[in-house]
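Open question from group meeting: does this chain pack into something compact, or does most of it stay loose? Before anyone orders reagents, we agreed to write out a predicted structure and look at it together. Recording both the input and the output here so the notebook holds the full record.
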Amino acid sequence: MRVLQLCHKIPYPPADGGSIAMHQITEGLWKANHNVKVIALNFKGCEICPDDIPEDYRNKVRFEAQTIDTRIKPWQAFLNLFSGKSYNVERFFSKAMERRLELVLCEEEFDIIQLEGLYLTPYIAVIRKHSSAKLLYRSHNIEHFIWERMAAAARNPLMRWYLRLLASRLKKFEMEVVHQVDGLVAISPLDLEFFKKNGCDQPALVVPVTMPRLEQPEGNPEVKTGTVFHLGSMDWRPNQEGIEWFLEKVWPLVVKQAPEMKFFLAGKRLPPKYFRYASNNVVVAGEVPSALDFMADKQIMVVPLLSGGGMRVKIIEGMAAAKTIISTTIGAEGIGCEDGRQILLADQPADMARLIVECRNDPAMAAKIGQAALVFVKQYYSPETVMPKLTRFYEGFFKE
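Structure tokens returned:
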């Protein structure tokens, strides 16, 4: 099968949730001997040089990147207020990308074209004009949920109004998109249920993020009891919001009960302002070369999300590393794990602090949660379990 995968950012290296989610699909398709081509947006200001991507990967997927400037421009954002359109989505449209797609589609035929995320959907018109391929939308998040939750949490009335406006326009656009494609690939059962309730009657399938078996780091370092960490893309607003809540509301309660505990903060594109939290109990690591090496000797992963949608890929990765994970309810949405068995959930600062200290005081209990998480992710999130379902879904569009 000939598949064109359009990615909202470069999916290699698979170092954050979005890139992991896209890369695992790409890898699963080529391992199943499908013909895959990947075209990815490359954000101006934080470009990844395609030459830095391994040649073997570039050749396997006939990879190419299109540089696009998605940076917020105040004047354009202001004018957008009067347009009725979603500024969130408009920022991802590029004439150069549209022209490149037109050229590729005129030169080559595809059976399936998969749009990885909402921000590729502005290119539906050019795809429909130049290709007869079946067009699938892979929903990484229900995007307007993120903005609705941020609006609800905003203290400034003007900011709250603006975020609600963005959320409203994004929701309208998101609901229209599902009727412009031939099929929906949702990242979680919760997301699929939402789309179905809101009128999506296209063929649909849940394809969660897959996580291959993680190889243990060399030396198999011993886990240090009382170490807590967060790992995620720190240019994503829900992560920023959650970490600030954790460091200001939760962590002081932990330190008060267990002054020797340490929290490690790591993530791509960490804004400089987070270094002000560094102290004897907080280590701000920034971007780390290997997520697995970073996690290896640490006991507890925290996912303190207050907004967001879709699925937290880092939770799946943490489970695959047998980590004890403590999350908010929102952070664990869509994964299907059970509180008290494969994960621990808390939505109030005092409750989260209590769970962290309990895991430090009872490492055997914490390790049991981590081992149950490992079994869970092997059963439901392995590529061997998930990818055949996606292949059958593709093939279903071409059966007589």
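Observations to bring back to the group:
The radius of gyration is 21 Å.
DSSP finds 15 helices and 13 strands in the chain.
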